[in-house]
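User: two proteins, same treatment. go.

Assistant:
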Amino acid sequence: MLVLALDSSTRTGSIALARDGHVLASRIGDAAVRQAVRLPGDVVALLSSHGHGLADVDLFAAAAGPGGFTGLRVGLATIQGLAMALDRRVFVASTLDLLALAGHAAAPHTRWIGVWMHGMRGEVFTALYQPSAVGAGVVPVVPAFVGTPDEAADTWAGVGPDNRIAVIGDAWPEASAALLARFGDALEPVVAPPLAEVLAIEAGHRIAEAVVPAAVRPAYVRRPDAVLTRLQAGLPVTGDVG
Protein backbone atom coordinates (compact mmCIF):
# COMPACT_ATOMS: atom_id res chain seq x y z
CA MET A 1 0.00 0.00 0.00
CA LEU A 2 1.37 3.39 -1.04
CA VAL A 3 0.74 6.15 1.53
CA LEU A 4 1.20 9.86 0.90
CA ALA A 5 1.38 11.91 4.10
CA LEU A 6 1.33 15.67 4.52
CA ASP A 7 2.05 17.82 7.56
CA SER A 8 1.22 21.50 7.16
CA SER A 9 0.73 22.19 10.87
CA THR A 10 4.37 22.84 11.76
CA ARG A 11 6.50 25.80 10.67
CA THR A 12 8.24 24.11 7.76
CA GLY A 13 5.79 21.31 7.08
CA SER A 14 6.79 18.08 5.36
CA ILE A 15 5.56 15.40 3.00
CA ALA A 16 6.43 11.72 2.94
CA LEU A 17 5.85 8.67 0.81
CA ALA A 18 5.73 5.24 2.45
CA ARG A 19 4.98 1.69 1.43
CA ASP A 20 4.13 -1.14 3.81
CA GLY A 21 5.33 0.74 6.89
CA HIS A 22 8.63 1.91 5.38
CA VAL A 23 9.35 5.51 4.38
CA LEU A 24 10.49 5.70 0.76
CA ALA A 25 11.17 9.43 0.69
CA SER A 26 10.34 12.65 2.48
CA ARG A 27 10.77 16.35 1.92
CA ILE A 28 10.87 19.22 4.41
CA GLY A 29 9.18 22.43 3.30
CA ASP A 30 10.71 25.88 3.04
CA ALA A 31 9.36 28.00 5.90
CA ALA A 32 9.99 31.13 3.82
CA VAL A 33 7.48 29.99 1.18
CA ARG A 34 3.78 29.88 2.05
CA GLN A 35 2.05 26.49 2.05
CA ALA A 36 -0.47 27.81 -0.46
CA VAL A 37 2.38 28.42 -2.91
CA ARG A 38 4.16 25.11 -2.30
CA LEU A 39 1.11 22.83 -2.42
CA PRO A 40 0.14 20.70 -4.21
CA GLY A 41 3.25 21.12 -6.38
CA ASP A 42 5.57 19.63 -3.74
CA VAL A 43 3.32 16.57 -3.50
CA VAL A 44 3.39 15.93 -7.23
CA ALA A 45 7.16 16.50 -7.36
CA LEU A 46 7.85 13.97 -4.59
CA LEU A 47 5.71 11.34 -6.28
CA SER A 48 7.29 11.98 -9.68
CA SER A 49 10.81 11.70 -8.28
CA HIS A 50 10.00 8.09 -7.35
CA GLY A 51 8.20 7.16 -10.53
CA HIS A 52 4.68 7.56 -9.17
CA GLY A 53 1.65 9.64 -9.99
CA LEU A 54 -1.26 10.68 -7.82
CA ALA A 55 -3.35 7.76 -9.08
CA ASP A 56 -0.82 5.34 -7.53
CA VAL A 57 -1.57 6.56 -4.00
CA ASP A 58 -3.72 4.10 -2.04
CA LEU A 59 -4.14 6.15 1.13
CA PHE A 60 -3.67 9.82 1.99
CA ALA A 61 -2.73 11.06 5.46
CA ALA A 62 -2.78 14.49 7.08
CA ALA A 63 -1.69 16.04 10.37
CA ALA A 64 -4.83 17.62 11.85
CA GLY A 65 -3.11 20.22 14.01
CA PRO A 66 -2.91 22.25 16.10
CA GLY A 67 -0.72 24.69 14.25
CA GLY A 68 -0.82 27.83 12.16
CA PHE A 69 -4.41 28.34 11.03
CA THR A 70 -3.76 29.20 7.37
CA GLY A 71 -1.13 26.55 6.70
CA LEU A 72 -3.22 23.92 8.43
CA ARG A 73 -6.32 24.69 6.38
CA VAL A 74 -4.35 24.77 3.11
CA GLY A 75 -2.78 21.39 3.83
CA LEU A 76 -6.01 19.71 4.86
CA ALA A 77 -7.84 21.15 1.86
CA THR A 78 -5.09 19.83 -0.43
CA ILE A 79 -5.34 16.31 0.96
CA GLN A 80 -9.14 16.39 0.95
CA GLY A 81 -9.23 17.54 -2.66
CA LEU A 82 -6.78 14.91 -3.88
CA ALA A 83 -8.47 12.11 -1.96
CA MET A 84 -11.92 13.14 -3.13
CA ALA A 85 -10.84 13.32 -6.77
CA LEU A 86 -9.27 9.86 -6.59
CA ASP A 87 -11.94 8.27 -4.36
CA ARG A 88 -9.44 7.50 -1.60
CA ARG A 89 -9.71 7.62 2.17
CA VAL A 90 -7.70 9.81 4.55
CA PHE A 91 -5.97 8.95 7.81
CA VAL A 92 -5.87 11.93 10.17
CA ALA A 93 -3.87 12.27 13.39
CA SER A 94 -3.21 15.00 15.93
CA THR A 95 0.07 16.83 15.46
CA LEU A 96 0.73 16.59 19.20
CA ASP A 97 0.11 12.83 19.18
CA LEU A 98 2.52 12.41 16.27
CA LEU A 99 5.21 14.42 18.04
CA ALA A 100 4.70 12.31 21.17
CA LEU A 101 5.13 9.12 19.15
CA ALA A 102 8.36 10.50 17.69
CA GLY A 103 9.57 11.48 21.15
CA HIS A 104 8.85 8.04 22.54
CA ALA A 105 10.65 6.36 19.63
CA ALA A 106 13.72 8.56 20.16
CA ALA A 107 13.80 8.16 23.96
CA PRO A 108 12.08 4.85 24.78
CA HIS A 109 13.71 4.75 28.23
CA THR A 110 11.70 7.75 29.48
CA ARG A 111 8.38 7.32 31.27
CA TRP A 112 7.06 10.72 30.19
CA ILE A 113 6.86 12.47 26.81
CA GLY A 114 6.05 16.17 26.73
CA VAL A 115 5.11 18.02 23.55
CA TRP A 116 6.10 21.70 23.49
CA MET A 117 4.98 23.41 20.29
CA HIS A 118 4.83 27.10 19.33
CA GLY A 119 1.28 28.37 19.77
CA MET A 120 1.92 31.98 18.72
CA ARG A 121 0.94 34.98 20.92
CA GLY A 122 3.54 33.94 23.50
CA GLU A 123 1.75 30.63 24.10
CA VAL A 124 2.48 26.96 23.52
CA PHE A 125 0.42 24.04 22.29
CA THR A 126 1.21 21.25 24.70
CA ALA A 127 0.28 17.83 26.04
CA LEU A 128 1.95 15.29 28.30
CA TYR A 129 2.03 11.57 27.53
CA GLN A 130 3.19 8.23 28.88
CA PRO A 131 4.02 5.07 26.92
CA SER A 132 1.04 2.83 26.36
CA ALA A 133 0.89 -0.35 28.42
CA VAL A 134 -0.11 -2.15 25.22
CA GLY A 135 1.89 -1.87 22.01
CA ALA A 136 4.28 0.91 21.04
CA GLY A 137 1.87 3.83 21.31
CA VAL A 138 1.45 6.67 23.79
CA VAL A 139 -1.48 7.82 25.91
CA PRO A 140 -2.19 11.42 26.98
CA VAL A 141 -1.99 12.18 30.69
CA VAL A 142 -2.46 15.92 30.16
CA PRO A 143 -4.68 16.37 27.08
CA ALA A 144 -3.90 18.95 24.41
CA PHE A 145 -4.35 22.58 25.41
CA VAL A 146 -2.89 26.01 24.70
CA GLY A 147 -1.51 28.39 27.31
CA THR A 148 1.49 30.41 28.38
CA PRO A 149 4.70 28.47 29.07
CA ASP A 150 4.20 29.06 32.81
CA GLU A 151 0.62 27.76 32.69
CA ALA A 152 1.68 24.72 30.70
CA ALA A 153 4.62 23.93 32.98
CA ASP A 154 2.39 24.25 36.06
CA THR A 155 -0.11 21.85 34.50
CA TRP A 156 2.62 19.31 33.82
CA ALA A 157 3.89 19.67 37.39
CA GLY A 158 0.36 19.10 38.67
CA VAL A 159 0.37 15.48 37.46
CA GLY A 160 3.74 14.90 39.12
CA PRO A 161 6.16 13.48 36.52
CA ASP A 162 8.50 11.38 38.67
CA ASN A 163 11.16 10.52 36.14
CA ARG A 164 12.91 11.85 33.05
CA ILE A 165 10.74 13.70 30.52
CA ALA A 166 11.47 13.56 26.80
CA VAL A 167 10.56 17.00 25.43
CA ILE A 168 9.84 17.43 21.73
CA GLY A 169 8.51 20.30 19.64
CA ASP A 170 9.55 23.56 18.01
CA ALA A 171 9.00 25.71 21.12
CA TRP A 172 12.13 24.17 22.64
CA PRO A 173 14.51 25.77 23.54
CA GLU A 174 13.12 29.28 22.86
CA ALA A 175 10.25 28.93 25.34
CA SER A 176 11.94 26.49 27.71
CA ALA A 177 12.61 28.69 30.76
CA ALA A 178 9.38 27.73 32.53
CA LEU A 179 10.03 24.01 32.06
CA LEU A 180 13.66 24.29 33.14
CA ALA A 181 12.63 26.15 36.30
CA ARG A 182 10.31 23.31 37.33
CA PHE A 183 12.02 20.18 36.02
CA GLY A 184 15.67 21.09 35.42
CA ASP A 185 17.90 18.14 34.58
CA ALA A 186 14.92 15.78 34.33
CA LEU A 187 14.24 17.18 30.86
CA GLU A 188 15.63 15.33 27.85
CA PRO A 189 15.20 17.34 24.62
CA VAL A 190 14.46 15.30 21.50
CA VAL A 191 14.82 16.58 17.93
CA ALA A 192 11.66 15.95 15.93
CA PRO A 193 11.97 14.14 12.58
CA PRO A 194 9.94 15.33 9.58
CA LEU A 195 6.47 14.78 11.00
CA ALA A 196 5.09 13.46 7.71
CA GLU A 197 7.37 10.42 8.11
CA VAL A 198 5.81 9.54 11.47
CA LEU A 199 2.36 10.16 10.00
CA ALA A 200 2.97 7.96 6.96
CA ILE A 201 4.06 5.01 9.10
CA GLU A 202 1.12 5.44 11.50
CA ALA A 203 -1.31 5.59 8.59
CA GLY A 204 -0.02 2.29 7.25
CA HIS A 205 -0.52 0.64 10.64
CA ARG A 206 -3.96 2.16 11.28
CA ILE A 207 -5.70 1.87 7.92
CA ALA A 208 -9.01 0.96 9.56
CA GLU A 209 -9.16 4.46 11.10
CA ALA A 210 -9.09 6.23 7.73
CA VAL A 211 -12.16 8.30 6.87
CA VAL A 212 -13.82 9.70 3.78
CA PRO A 213 -12.41 13.11 2.76
CA ALA A 214 -15.52 15.01 3.82
CA ALA A 215 -15.06 13.76 7.40
CA VAL A 216 -11.60 15.31 7.81
CA ARG A 217 -11.60 18.00 10.50
CA PRO A 218 -8.82 20.25 11.84
CA ALA A 219 -7.84 20.14 15.52
CA TYR A 220 -7.21 23.79 16.28
CA VAL A 221 -7.14 23.51 20.11
CA ARG A 222 -7.57 27.30 20.09
CA ARG A 223 -10.28 29.00 18.06
CA PRO A 224 -9.10 31.08 15.08
CA ASP A 225 -8.88 34.87 15.48
CA ALA A 226 -11.75 35.44 13.06
CA VAL A 227 -14.03 33.24 15.16
CA LEU A 228 -13.03 34.93 18.42
CA THR A 229 -13.67 38.35 16.88
CA ARG A 230 -17.17 37.32 15.78
CA LEU A 231 -17.96 35.85 19.19
CA GLN A 232 -16.78 39.01 20.96
CA ALA A 233 -19.01 41.04 18.66
CA GLY A 234 -21.99 38.81 19.39
CA LEU A 235 -22.14 37.55 15.80
CA PRO A 236 -23.06 33.97 14.81
CA VAL A 237 -20.33 31.46 13.97
CA THR A 238 -20.72 28.69 11.41
CA GLY A 239 -18.48 25.91 10.09
CA ASP A 240 -15.38 24.50 11.80
CA VAL A 241 -14.48 26.52 14.85
CA GLY A 242 -12.00 24.16 16.48
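Protein 2:
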Amino acid sequence: MLEQDWPASITEVKKHFPRSPIFLMGHSLGGQLSVCFSALNPNVIQGIILVAAGTSHYNAFHHKLRTYCASQLLSLMSYFTGYLSYKKQGLRVREARQLTRDYAYNVRTGRYRIKQANGYKSLDGYLTQMKTAILAFSFDGDRYTPHSSTVKLLDKLSRAKKTHIRTSALEMQIHSIDHFNWVQNGDKLVPSITKWIIQQGD
Protein backbone atom coordinates (compact mmCIF):
# COMPACT_ATOMS: atom_id res chain seq x y z
CA MET A 1 0.00 0.00 0.00
CA LEU A 2 2.64 2.52 1.07
CA GLU A 3 5.07 1.77 -1.74
CA GLN A 4 2.66 1.20 -4.64
CA ASP A 5 -0.99 2.16 -4.04
CA TRP A 6 -0.47 5.52 -2.32
CA PRO A 7 2.23 6.78 -4.78
CA ALA A 8 0.12 5.73 -7.79
CA SER A 9 -2.91 7.55 -6.40
CA ILE A 10 -0.92 10.71 -5.66
CA THR A 11 0.59 10.68 -9.16
CA GLU A 12 -2.87 10.43 -10.71
CA VAL A 13 -4.23 13.28 -8.57
CA LYS A 14 -1.29 15.51 -9.49
CA LYS A 15 -1.87 14.74 -13.16
CA HIS A 16 -5.40 16.16 -12.99
CA PHE A 17 -4.80 18.89 -10.38
CA PRO A 18 -1.14 19.92 -10.81
CA ARG A 19 -1.42 23.19 -8.86
CA SER A 20 -3.60 22.00 -5.99
CA PRO A 21 -2.24 21.07 -2.55
CA ILE A 22 -2.89 17.47 -1.56
CA PHE A 23 -4.67 16.50 1.65
CA LEU A 24 -5.22 12.92 2.75
CA MET A 25 -8.21 11.83 4.81
CA GLY A 26 -8.13 8.46 6.52
CA HIS A 27 -10.40 6.55 8.86
CA SER A 28 -9.01 4.05 11.39
CA LEU A 29 -6.24 2.02 9.70
CA GLY A 30 -6.48 4.31 6.68
CA GLY A 31 -5.47 7.20 8.91
CA GLN A 32 -2.46 5.35 10.29
CA LEU A 33 -1.33 4.43 6.77
CA SER A 34 -1.77 8.02 5.59
CA VAL A 35 0.48 9.21 8.41
CA CYS A 36 3.10 6.59 7.55
CA PHE A 37 3.01 7.51 3.85
CA SER A 38 3.45 11.20 4.62
CA ALA A 39 6.35 10.43 6.96
CA LEU A 40 8.10 8.46 4.21
CA ASN A 41 7.38 11.14 1.59
CA PRO A 42 7.99 14.57 3.13
CA ASN A 43 6.81 17.64 1.19
CA VAL A 44 4.32 15.61 -0.87
CA ILE A 45 1.29 15.99 1.40
CA GLN A 46 0.18 19.36 2.79
CA GLY A 47 -2.08 17.94 5.47
CA ILE A 48 -3.80 14.85 6.86
CA ILE A 49 -7.30 14.52 8.32
CA LEU A 50 -7.61 11.59 10.73
CA VAL A 51 -11.06 10.29 11.67
CA ALA A 52 -11.21 7.76 14.52
CA ALA A 53 -7.57 6.87 13.85
CA GLY A 54 -4.97 6.09 16.49
CA THR A 55 -2.32 3.66 17.55
CA SER A 56 -3.37 0.09 18.34
CA HIS A 57 -0.86 -0.18 21.20
CA TYR A 58 -2.50 -2.10 24.03
CA ASN A 59 -1.46 0.52 26.58
CA ALA A 60 -3.81 3.05 24.95
CA PHE A 61 -6.89 0.96 25.79
CA HIS A 62 -8.85 0.44 28.98
CA HIS A 63 -8.86 -3.36 28.66
CA LYS A 64 -5.12 -3.70 28.11
CA LEU A 65 -4.69 -7.44 28.64
CA ARG A 66 -7.75 -8.31 26.56
CA THR A 67 -6.56 -6.11 23.70
CA TYR A 68 -3.07 -7.59 23.79
CA CYS A 69 -4.14 -11.24 23.93
CA ALA A 70 -6.91 -10.93 21.34
CA SER A 71 -4.60 -9.29 18.79
CA GLN A 72 -1.95 -11.98 19.12
CA LEU A 73 -4.53 -14.75 18.86
CA LEU A 74 -5.99 -13.22 15.69
CA SER A 75 -2.51 -12.97 14.19
CA LEU A 76 -1.85 -16.62 15.02
CA MET A 77 -5.14 -17.67 13.43
CA SER A 78 -4.34 -15.77 10.23
CA TYR A 79 -0.91 -17.43 10.10
CA PHE A 80 -2.51 -20.84 9.70
CA THR A 81 -5.46 -19.84 7.48
CA GLY A 82 -3.68 -17.26 5.30
CA TYR A 83 -6.20 -14.57 6.18
CA LEU A 84 -8.53 -13.43 8.95
CA SER A 85 -12.28 -13.65 8.33
CA TYR A 86 -14.98 -12.08 10.50
CA LYS A 87 -18.31 -10.27 10.35
CA LYS A 88 -18.58 -6.55 11.07
CA GLN A 89 -21.65 -4.36 10.65
CA GLY A 90 -23.38 -7.28 8.93
CA LEU A 91 -20.60 -7.63 6.33
CA ARG A 92 -18.14 -10.48 5.88
CA VAL A 93 -14.61 -9.05 6.11
CA ARG A 94 -11.33 -10.68 5.12
CA GLU A 95 -8.01 -9.27 6.30
CA ALA A 96 -4.71 -10.33 4.72
CA ARG A 97 -2.28 -12.27 6.91
CA GLN A 98 0.43 -9.60 6.65
CA LEU A 99 -2.00 -6.87 7.66
CA THR A 100 -3.05 -8.90 10.70
CA ARG A 101 0.60 -9.50 11.63
CA ASP A 102 1.40 -5.79 11.36
CA TYR A 103 -1.62 -4.98 13.52
CA ALA A 104 -0.48 -7.46 16.19
CA TYR A 105 3.03 -5.96 16.08
CA ASN A 106 1.64 -2.47 16.63
CA VAL A 107 -0.50 -3.70 19.52
CA ARG A 108 2.56 -5.30 21.18
CA THR A 109 5.09 -2.54 20.64
CA GLY A 110 3.29 0.65 19.63
CA ARG A 111 5.76 0.91 16.74
CA TYR A 112 5.26 0.95 12.97
CA ARG A 113 7.18 -0.93 10.29
CA ILE A 114 7.00 -1.78 6.61
CA LYS A 115 7.87 -5.15 5.10
CA GLN A 116 10.50 -5.09 2.37
CA ALA A 117 12.29 -7.77 0.37
CA ASN A 118 15.21 -7.90 2.80
CA GLY A 119 13.20 -7.66 6.02
CA TYR A 120 11.35 -4.97 7.95
CA LYS A 121 12.03 -1.23 7.93
CA SER A 122 11.13 0.77 11.04
CA LEU A 123 9.03 3.88 10.44
CA ASP A 124 9.18 5.45 13.89
CA GLY A 125 12.19 7.63 13.10
CA TYR A 126 10.35 9.01 10.08
CA LEU A 127 7.24 9.69 12.17
CA THR A 128 9.11 11.75 14.75
CA GLN A 129 10.59 13.92 11.98
CA MET A 130 7.32 14.45 10.10
CA LYS A 131 6.16 18.09 9.93
CA THR A 132 2.89 17.59 8.02
CA ALA A 133 -0.15 19.37 9.47
CA ILE A 134 -2.62 17.01 11.16
CA LEU A 135 -6.31 17.41 11.99
CA ALA A 136 -7.60 14.53 14.12
CA PHE A 137 -11.15 13.71 15.19
CA SER A 138 -11.93 11.24 17.97
CA PHE A 139 -15.35 10.33 19.32
CA ASP A 140 -16.80 9.60 22.73
CA GLY A 141 -18.05 6.03 22.75
CA ASP A 142 -15.53 4.76 20.21
CA ARG A 143 -14.20 1.58 21.80
CA TYR A 144 -12.01 0.70 18.81
CA THR A 145 -10.16 4.03 18.82
CA PRO A 146 -10.71 5.82 22.13
CA HIS A 147 -9.41 9.35 22.64
CA SER A 148 -6.30 7.93 24.34
CA SER A 149 -5.43 5.95 21.21
CA THR A 150 -5.53 9.06 19.03
CA VAL A 151 -3.47 11.01 21.57
CA LYS A 152 -0.82 8.28 21.67
CA LEU A 153 -0.49 8.36 17.88
CA LEU A 154 -0.27 12.16 17.81
CA ASP A 155 2.41 12.06 20.52
CA LYS A 156 4.61 10.13 18.10
CA LEU A 157 4.41 13.01 15.63
CA SER A 158 6.42 15.34 17.83
CA ARG A 159 7.30 17.86 15.10
CA ALA A 160 3.94 17.91 13.30
CA LYS A 161 1.45 20.78 13.62
CA LYS A 162 -1.45 18.97 15.29
CA THR A 163 -5.08 19.84 15.98
CA HIS A 164 -7.13 17.29 17.92
CA ILE A 165 -10.92 17.66 18.10
CA ARG A 166 -12.63 15.42 20.64
CA THR A 167 -16.33 15.33 20.05
CA SER A 168 -19.48 13.52 21.15
CA ALA A 169 -22.97 12.71 19.93
CA LEU A 170 -24.29 15.57 22.06
CA GLU A 171 -21.92 18.09 20.49
CA MET A 172 -22.73 16.79 17.01
CA GLN A 173 -26.46 16.91 17.84
CA ILE A 174 -27.07 13.29 16.88
CA HIS A 175 -28.38 10.25 18.76
CA SER A 176 -25.13 8.27 18.99
CA ILE A 177 -21.60 8.15 17.58
CA ASP A 178 -19.06 5.35 17.36
CA HIS A 179 -16.18 4.04 15.26
CA PHE A 180 -18.39 3.28 12.26
CA ASN A 181 -21.65 5.24 12.28
CA TRP A 182 -19.93 8.65 12.25
CA VAL A 183 -19.87 8.33 8.46
CA GLN A 184 -23.67 8.65 8.42
CA ASN A 185 -23.19 12.10 9.91
CA GLY A 186 -19.96 13.05 8.18
CA ASP A 187 -21.46 16.38 7.17
CA LYS A 188 -21.11 17.45 10.81
CA LEU A 189 -17.32 17.38 10.40
CA VAL A 190 -17.23 19.36 7.16
CA PRO A 191 -17.19 22.90 8.68
CA SER A 192 -14.21 22.07 10.91
CA ILE A 193 -12.36 20.37 8.05
CA THR A 194 -13.02 23.25 5.65
CA LYS A 195 -11.86 25.86 8.16
CA TRP A 196 -8.70 23.88 8.92
CA ILE A 197 -7.79 23.38 5.25
CA ILE A 198 -8.19 27.11 4.59
CA GLN A 199 -5.90 27.85 7.54
CA GLN A 200 -3.17 25.67 6.03
CA GLY A 201 -3.01 28.00 3.05
CA ASP A 202 -2.59 31.14 5.16
